[in-house]
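SUBJECT: A protein chain and its fold
Encoding: whole-number codes for local backbone shapes
RECORD BEGINS BELOW THIS LINE
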Amino acid sequence: MSRVCSVCGKGKLSGNLVSHSNRKTPKLYNANLQKVSVKDAKGNVSKEYVCTKCLKAGKVERA
């Protein structure tokens, strides 16, 4: 199971760390994901990764 939000699909972002001398090294930025018990439309409960923005917006019904 990959660390991707099950609601919006948010995952890892890649970018560069840039030093004062303008040297660039690769860097991965992880999304703020939480493993949460989620209830779907039928009432089934499963554990899924959900980003905190989706949790705050109420896009998920927690079990």
